[in-house]
Design brief:
The structure is a homodimer.
Chain A lengths: L1 H18 L7 E7 L3 H13 L4 E7 L1 H10 L2 H5 L3 H13 L2 E6 L11 H22 L5 E5 L3 H7 L5 H15 L8 H22 L3 E5 L5 E5 L7 E2 L2 E2 L3 H5 L4 E2 L2 E2 L4 E3 L6 E6 L4 E3 L2 E11 L2 E9 L1 H8 L8 E6 L5 H5 L6 H4 L5 E5 L14 H6 L8 E5 L6 E5 L5 E6 L2 E2 L4
Parallel strand pairs in A: 1-2, 1-3, 3-4, 4-10
Antiparallel strand pairs in A: 5-6, 5-19, 6-12, 7-11, 8-9, 11-16, 12-14, 13-14, 14-15, 16-17, 17-18, 19-20, 20-21
Helix pairs in contact in A: 1-2, 5-6, 7-8
Chain lengths: 420, 420
């Protein structure tokens, strides 16, 4: 127990210092489930010790979201109050470091009226969007996991409750590169060095398009954007130098194993098959495929959860377009753990994946010279959703094609096919 | 366990329907500790079922308050943000029903820098005050308890953790008049009828002053205000008819056993001895006495916690004046339970008590014709604190004296000395 407490404190420190990299005098916000109050305290302490000027903890509780969905009118669900706006204005002005802890029951939102939620989101989103755009890429954020009893039971259905919880915490610590007897900070430094080498190679190739093939049926081509780079691992805060007087390196996902880019909007053809279940809005979509034409999802089917998949792909006009292509070796620690987490943060890192919805504007060369609308026209998709789903396996091959028709192997049987 | 869940649901329903009496279409706010997320869900469901238009749950966590106190500057602690103001404005306009659940560890704020907290409060208070004044008596509110492990262990130090928790929940249910096999709603109706009879009698006597005596040393006179009435049990919402179109009866404290008034500011003489420990800002003050002259505390001493008592009485200029006199028979269920709860909501109801600090403006005849400042000049004390402390016991006698010198026994040996 004492050992667990120590690991929890180390993990909180890792999230605060290596994840979000809290700067002296910076406000910090933590979004976390109410039943994680013990971990919330560790994170708050770590943030203050790193020099945070204030730490705000927003507790949430998944069953309350279900009740709000059930009883509130769409108008009430959609409401952006004067208070909400004042908070958004504060965030735009003060750019707090944001820590989001994911721990929810993957099946916890079953029974939610999705159509109602979707209507509310469609009303809320345009009101909130200008604030989000103003903050884009200007603040550090991190998403990390925390084990909860319901999530643990989903991941380890055959273990007794306490053992399942301990096993999930253990998996979280290990996949966050906190193996016993090693220095987590050094592990992350090494990890980021490897990211940089692969990323630089990909950026130097200037591929025109990628071709994905697997025996399961995936046969898919996606065109890259000549002005959009590949990125992976930690990031430098773009707004950093002006605001803080120095560069801030942070790791927005813990764990992370992916190198990703935003492809050219409107240029993708063929069919991809999911290789892992997708948990979306608390519901599971399993064994699905999506066919793209002119970059847009035009046909899809799912063995289960097809209604949620419909909602997702039709969430708005651009939800059917691709926002991300990501490369993850099948040998990543998460894949090797053999654990299906039922949580995108972890499962996406076991596998190559695609995201439907918004792309990443800050991957675009000189992105800050353009408005979000201009970048959309330049080929960076924009949508209220961004949902990753996994298509990687130890059978996936990927080739890169250059403008002059040269074919270069990128992945063979799920692993990098080049040396760096 | 199933039985406990049912009792918890009944209790939530009692708080929502009899306590705060949520009206159809009314917004509801719930303040509750993060570790009470299960109870928060029951309360939220009950509020929606009673017709709430929206339910907002603000989770708090006591250890975070300690960290904020330790690490934030006074300025940060005192800050009333644009967001806070927008929320206060919303409350003034929409008058949500407020449910506050108390469950904190009575010793949980030990080590807090009180001076720092006090400085911050002194800056915050005048900014928030105008909003509070505007809402005064216009919305329903309730404070009720919920058992937490730390609180339970404090109350039942000799029981194992789980038994202590169960025992405290049981005591909470029983003192809230939820005895098994009875109808809690009918119990509260009967209770309120008894309150009304004693209250009417007290109001009809028009006493000039009360004289408290006990063998322990209490010898104390407090003058009543001719325009201020006695009140007890549930209340009718004063702003009700205009706002809701009908009268709303609600019970601001669950449990409640007291009939109380606000005495005339500046007219009290003599010494009172505490008969139970006072838990203030998470710290305990034990075996203390306070001597009044011209209505003001001029001397005080405590066997323990005297530093906190100093802070409390000197919190602001009027913290040394009396805001409340309350009568509670020693035979109240809480006293009879023999349990010391280390929580004012419960312990005050085992005993006659006095409050230092703010009085109750709405007990004043035609109070809504006056500003708070005018009522202060008319003898209703105003302060940023309102702290009850207990002076009752089975040895306490109280006499009422009328203007023409007639002496009428009110309490003998801690019980009502008149028939209604």
């Amino acid at each position: 127990m004492e050992n667990f407490e120590k690991r929890l404190e180390d993990y909180a420190k890792l999230i605060v210092e290596v994840g979000v990299n809290v700067q002296k005098g910076q406000p910090v916000e933590i979004r976390i489930a109410a039943d994680q109050y013990v971990f919330a305290e560790k994170l708050t302490k770590a943030a203050y010790e790193a020099g945070a000027s204030s730490v705000r903890v927003d507790f949430n509780h998944q069953p309350l979201s279900l009740l709000h969905n059930q009883y509130k009118t769409v108008e009430k669900l959609a409401e952006v109050s004067a208070e909400d706006k004042a908070r958004l204005e504060y965030s735009v002005e003060n750019l707090p470091a944001m820590i989001a802890i994911t721990s929810a029951d993957p099946d916890g939102l079953k029974g939610m009226d999705m159509a109602k939620q979707q209507k509310a989101s469609a009303i809320r989103y345009p009101i909130i969007k200008p604030y989000i755009d103003k903050m884009e890429s200007k603040y550090q954020w991190v998403i990390a996991g925390a084990a909860s009893p319901a999530w643990a039971q989903k991941v380890f259905p055959d273990l007794p409750a306490e053992e399942a919880l301990a096993a999930l915490w253990d998996a979280i610590f290990k996949t966050s590169r906190m193996e016993a007897g090693t220095d987590p900070v050094k592990n992350w430094d090494k990890h980021n060095a490897s990211f940089k080498a692969h990323m630089d190679w990909l950026n130097e190739q200037h591929f025109d398009y990628l071709h994905y093939k697997s025996p399961k049926g995936t046969d898919f081509k996606a065109w890259l954007h000549p002005k959009v780079k590949w990125l992976g691992g930690g990031e430098k805060l773009h707004g950093g130098p002006e605001r803080l007087g120095h560069e801030v390196f942070y790791n927005p996902n813990m764990p992370t194993e992916e190198i990703f880019t935003t492809p050219m909007k409107g240029k993708a053809e063929g069919t991809v098959y999911s290789t892992k279940p997708l948990s979306y809005m608390g519901q599971l979509i399993e064994n699905f495929s999506i066919t793209f034409k002119d970059g847009k999802a035009v046909e899809w089917q799912a063995e289960s959860g097809s209604e949620v998949l419909d909602k997702m792909i039709t969430m708005d006009e651009n939800a059917a377009y691709i926002g991300e292509l990501a490369l993850v070796p099948d040998s990543s620690p998460i894949s090797q753990s053999g654990i299906l987490f039922y949580n995108t943060l972890y499962d996406e890192n076991a596998s190559c994946h695609i995201a439907l919805g918004a792309g990443f504007p800050d991957l675009y060369e000189d992105y800050d010279k353009y408005s979000r609308e201009e970048l959309e026209k330049l080929g960076i998709n924009d949508s209220m959703i961004h949902v990753d789903f996994m298509i990687g396996s130890n059978e996936l091959d990927i080739d890169g094609y250059t403008k002059d028709g040269k074919c270069v192997p990128i992945f063979r049987k799920g692993e990098w096919a080049f040396e760096v």
